[in-house]
Structure formats: C-alpha cells, structure tokens
Amino acid sequence: MGKMRKKSRLKRIGFILVALAVIYVLLYVMTPSVSSYYYEKENDKVIAGLETPLLKEGDTLILHTGFSLSYNEETEQPSWVAYHLTRDELYGLFEREDNFTPDPLITTGSAELKDYRKSGYDRGHIIPAADATWSQRAMSDTFYLSNMSPQEPSFNRGIWADLESVVRNFASTEGSVYVVSGPIFYDTKQNQTIGDNKVVVPDAYFKVILDYVEPEVKAIGFILENKGSKANLESFAVSVDEVEQITDIDFYPLLENRIEEELEASFDVSSWNFNSFRVSKEERREYMKNRENGSEQEVVIVEEEQNGIYLFLLDMMMESKKELRKLIKKYNFQQIFGEVKGIFT
Questions:
Q1: Which is the CATH superfamily of the domain at 42-293?
Q2: Could you tell me the pTM of the whole model?
C-alpha cells in the first residue's frame, strides 16, 4: 500500500512538472522578445546591463557609479570598461578633481599612483572623466587606478581625447549610446612594463559604440595604436566583429542573436556625426535649468493601465527569458546538442 502511494505521489509530481514546463513554453512563445519588451516598456530601448560584455570564466564584474569593469591582474589595468551614456549626462556640472587612487574593490590590489610616476606615460582614463560630470561620485570613481592604462602622452592628449569627444557627440546626437573601451595587447610578454606592479603598456586601444535608439539602430568600433596620430578618426573605424576577433571579447550579449550579428558585422561612418562635443559651463546650466522647467520636449509613451499581478508575472517571465538566453550563449547548447546527436547517429 505504501509503495503504491509513493508511486502515485511521484506520478502527480511528474504530471505537475510536465504541466509547468508546457505552460512555460507557451508563455515563452506568447510573450514578446527581450529586446522589444524593454523597448516598449522603457521607450528608448534602455536595457539594464546591455553595455556589459560577456564575462569569461574567472572574471569578476566590478561595479562603480555609472560604469562597470573587468580587471586584469596580469596587466594591472581593466580588460574593458563599459557604460551607458545619455544626452542629459553630458550636461552635468561636476568638475574633475584628479583624485587618483587605488581601487578598493580590486581584492588582489590595483595599480598604484607610484607605478606611473616618471614612467613617461600618462594615466589614461578608459571611461573619461568628462563622461561623468553628472555625478560627483561617478566623477570620483573614474579616477580609480583600475580605470587607468599607460598611454603615450601624444596619444592620450591627442587622438584618444578627440575620440572621447566624438563619442560624447554620438550620445548628444543619438540620445544615448552604450560604450565599451579597453586596451589591446598583441603579446604581453614582449610589452614594456612600468612601476613596481609591472603595469603592462598596451599596443593599442579599442572602443565599441552601440546606438540602440530608433529609428537608426547601429554600431561601430575603433582600434587605435598607442601613439599620437593626425589621421582622421574615420580611418580607425572598424566593425564590432573585428574588435571581437582581436580582443576575444563578446560585446552586447543581451541582444538577440540575429540583431547582434547584423549590428556587429558592418559599420557605416556616414551614419555617425563625427563632430566634437563642446559645451560651456553656462550652456550646461541653461540646459539643466530647461530640463527642470520641463521645457525640453520629450517623446512620451502612455501605457495602458494594466493589472499589477499581470505586470509582475510578465516581468518575471522576461527576466527568466533574459537569463535563459545568457545561459544558451555562454554554454553554446546548440553545439552540445549537435555533439550529443552525433553520438547516437
């Protein structure tokens, strides 16, 4: 009798699990895609974490105000720094303080100020301080040495600064952009190091930028050697795919695969405004004053009133879809299924 009850209980549990799986599949099909859901909900396709590259095994995501990074202990600098930059953030009033300091969140210890002293190299920001004028905390965080990389002075103060200004203009003209920047090493064993911590001097640097605001969704990459140049910035433009091949970094993994492949495969410099972004303190104050008075015109989507339980369940479903997509991308289940199928055929 006891065994029969146990069997019956297991059957019921099995039936419930199958029913839940069927319901999940139906909901998966019936609910919108991750990209379209966040677009409809947040108006300008602001997807939390969209700028963050796919973390590799052993990577630790370091979160600071307004940006995130992955730190490379071998080279004593970030592998990449990622952030979302909006038009409004360009008009902040906080000034740089040059308070360079080791990053307390790097448990192994980041580079130190003395590593750069008398090295002949600048402490080059990966996320520039000028992209963090919107918050005193964000501005201060950009001066952590985990956000620094040894750059040739003519590069840091020249073409790299020019590119940073142009990226700010991208944010201004497009409304917002997702940015990832970092160093490139072709052979770290051959590279010069500086300081007691042996900070490795990079061969080059990259930036990838995603404009995910309609009507013209697009992406572009840049690769620049760590040396001064008078060449036009357009001549350094490449596809995001090319940057991925050189850096072995998977950018924008939260995008649907089809959209990601299309955006990263090509680029068109004529679709971007390569003017430098220049704004005075007076213009910043005027802009912020207008924003506070509501004189800036905004596109607003009025959502239909919906049941709170419905919205909660929809949010839960979309979060699960987002996590499932991350797992599929990380472990490449299609390849695994193909290998398993090959065993039995």
A1: Extracellular Endonuclease, subunit A (3.40.570.10)
A2: 0.72
